[in-house]
Structure formats: structure tokens, C-alpha cells
Amino acid sequence: MNILTGILIALLAGALNGMFALQMKLNKNWAWENNWFPFSFLSLMIFPLVIVVLSIPNPIELLSSLPIHNIITGLICGIIIYGGSLLFGISLGYIGIALSFTLLVGSMSIVGVLLPLIIFNSNILFSVGGIFMLSGVILFLISLFFSFKAVKLKEASIKSKDTGNTMEKSSMQKGMILAITGGVLSGLLSLVMNMDWAKEIVDKAVRIGNANLSYASNAVLFIILIGGIIPNVGYCIFLLNTNKSW
Asked: What's the CA gap between 57 and 65, in Å, rounded?
């Protein structure tokens, strides 16, 4: 039942995640930073804070007991991983929601599945379960190939004689690079969550924070998400000041 519940929650989360950028497309009156700022603040600060308070009975005691190097490591990981989310967000303005999500999810899944599997569980790589996961990675690679093919076909239809079309072609290439880079960085989350420093925090969340083992990893995720605020909100504030779009 727990596995089924997890699958259903993952499917719901995927559906909601796929819809989150829709309002950016529909809202023509706001600049990109006006949309991304509240999204970043809510998803990287408010909701993680609510989740950690609800799932860790003694969050303050837990956080105050953590070694400073573990917290700094988590924050740095958050800056890198959710810097990838920022790059993806920027790519939306270049290549649109559909292609950005395809490239993000494909590259993120390849990195997020393969790296932890190779580094931490290489012994199951060619087991039945490992083969199923590798098959999924191959499907993602195929989807990335067809995404590139679609972009190439669109580029071929653009006449390079016209300056505007040349700029459109350049923007598409830039958007693809941003989306793929964002996916690669975002995919590092599953690797980071399996590192020793993260496991130390999970162990303390159980022993000191009195957390259920099933929810103890929320303490790690909370620190990582707080780190993610820095590039996302920081870039939004920069644009808000530069573009005078407050």
C-alpha cells in the first residue's frame, strides 16, 4: 500500500509540476521575474518550512545539533541543484514549455537514475530491476534524440537570410543548452541525497528530531531547498532592479 501511495503521489506531483509554468504563458502582463520570484519563494522557502515542521517533531533542536559543515554542504548542493531549476526557468522564454520540459525531464532522469545506480548500487546494474531502469534511461535518450530532431527540423524551416529568423535560431539553441544543463544539475539531487553527510542528517533526524524514518530525509531536503533560494530569488531581485519591474 505504501508503494502504491508513493506512486500515486509521484504521478500527481509530476502532473502538477508539468502545469506550473502554464500560468507564466497565460499571464502576459507580468515579466518573467514577476512570476519566478513568488514561485521560488513559495517552493523553496514556505512549503519546505511547513513540511519540515510537520514531519520532524523537533526541527529546531535537530538543526541546532547539526555540524556546520553539513549545513554548508547542503546549502552549496542546493545552490548547484536549484541553480539548474533557474536555468530551466530561463529556457522557457527561449523554447517554450513543451520542449523545455522534454529536455529537462530527459536529462534530469538520465543523470538522476544512472549516477546513483553506478556509484551506490552498481551490483544491481544488470539485475532484473537494473535492466528495467536502464531500459527507462534508454527511452529518455530516445526522447532527447527526437527532441533534437524536432528542433533541427524547425531550424531548417527558418531562413537565415532574415535577421529576425537568425536570432530565433540562436535563441532556440541557447534555450536547449539552458534546459539540458538545468536538467543535468537538477538530476544531481538523487545523488546528493545518498551521500554520507545527508545520511548523517537523516540519522540525527531520527535520533534527535524524533522523526519517522520515512520522513527523516525531509530534513536534508529542507537545507538543500533553502540553498536553492540563493540563485533563484537572487536572480529575480537582480532582474526586478534592472528592468524596473517591481
From this structure: 14
The Cα-based distances of 41 to 34, 119, 143, 155, 221 in angstroms read 11, 33, 32, 36, 15
Mean pLDDT within 118-123: 79
Which triple of cell numbers denotes residue 49?
518550512
150 with 171: CB under 8 angstroms? Answer: no
Q: Which of the two residues, 245 and 187, has the higher pLDDT score?
A: 187
Which residue bears the cell 534546459? 179
pLDDT tens, residue by residue, 1-44: 467 777 787 778 777 776 766 677 677 778 889 989 998 999 99
Contact 201, 66 (CB under 8 A): yes
**How many degrees, rounded to 5, is the angle at CA 155 between CA 154 and CA 161?**
130
Alpha-carbon distances, residue 12 vs 7, 9, 18 (angstroms) = 9, 5, 10
Question: Grid coordinates representing 225?
Answer: 531547498
Q: Which of 221, 245, 228 is nearest to 50 (CA)?
A: 221
Residue (of 22, 89, 73) closest to 232 by Cα position? 89
Q: Grid coordinates in use for 157? A: 524551416
Can you give 150-206 as a three-state secondary structure string?
HHHHHHHCCCCCCHHHHHHHHHHHHHHHHHHHHHHHHCHHHHHCCCHHHHHHHHHHH
Distance, in Å, from the CA atom of 232 to the CA atom of 43, rounded to the nearest integer, reads 11
- Gyration radius of the chain's alpha carbons: 20
User: pTM higher than 0.85 for the full model?
Assistant: no
